[in-house]
Amino acid sequence: MPKAEALTAASKPEHALPVAGRCVLSERRALQLGLALVMLAYVPIALVGLPLFGDGAYYFFKLALDGVPVFPNLRLGSVLAQLPTLAATRLTDDVVLLRHLFSFTYVALPVVSLLVCWSIVRERRPELILLPLLFLVANQINFSAVSELLFSLYLVWPFVLLAALAPNRRLTLIYGAVLAPLLLLLHPLGFALAGFLSLVALLNARFDRATDRTWTRAWSGLAAAFAVSAVLRVISTLVGATGYERSLTEPDAAVRYLLPETLSQGLLLPGWRSWGSWRR
């Protein structure tokens, strides 16, 4: 018997191999890796100057040649992303340098948004980073980097996560108070985002965690602020919309505006048209 045990022990390898199919990454490490890969993907986007696509070229040349910011149709909030390039035009007239600064500034918007979102969720619910992360992965096929609608979404994601995970922190309320008027100064569709955030704030005001009346009043006030922002944005859009903006109210035009020119859009549009034909 001892001899048999000795033979069995000798037949075992000195170092056991890992179990086949075993995941070597923890959930947190996998999320961090995905986060890093998505952020790194924005580096070549900036280097090749993709933010200059479409309206971006007009924005850049107005900044580089005329030294003035661009805020089409009084979208004053869009000036925030142009400030670094605008300041640099006072120091240099090197177009290549200004082009890279312009591109990296706009590329930094989604990257900073992701980093802020990760700082919010990493300790309590790291898996929630998948919401903004997957959104940005899907949106990397949209080349309109200067879109005020995208800028609005980059600002909204951190607030949504703060409202879900840290509703009773003063920072959340301060950020919401700044965000409400800012959405009014960005894209015409900002009314939809402001309306959604108004509902989020209203839910927090009524949620069980908001047992303190002080927090309930604060969230109710924030809900009212977002609601006012949404209403004012709707009025501004209806009164001051340009011909181009009005043309986007047509169903086909709206779909083409919101969805990029990709294979996925090609698959979605026939379904949309079929549904529209069936409705008629």
State Rg.
25 Å
**Biggest beta-sheet profile:** none
The stretches of 5 or more residues where confidence is low (pLDDT under 50) are: 3-20, 268-280
The secondary structure category is mainly alpha
Report, as a whole number of angstroms, the end-to-end distance.
86 Å
Number of separate structural domains? 2
Transmembrane segments: 30-53, 101-121, 149-166, 173-202, 222-241
Keywords: Membrane, Transmembrane, Transmembrane helix
Features:
single chain, 280 residues, mainly alpha, 13 helices, globular, transmembrane, transmembrane helix, membrane
Please outline what is shown here.
The protein has 280 residues and is mainly alpha-helical. Helices cover 69% and strands 0% of the residues. The chain has 2 domains: 118 residues, no CATH class; 95 residues.
How does this model look, in words?
- The chain contains 13 helices and no strands.
- The longest helix has 28 residues.
- The N terminus and C terminus are likely disordered.
- With 280 residues, it is an all-alpha fold.
- The protein is globular.
- α2 runs parallel beside α6, α7 runs parallel beside α9 and α9 runs antiparallel to α10.
- The chain has 2 domains: 118 residues, no CATH class; 95 residues.
- Keywords: Membrane, Transmembrane, Transmembrane helix.
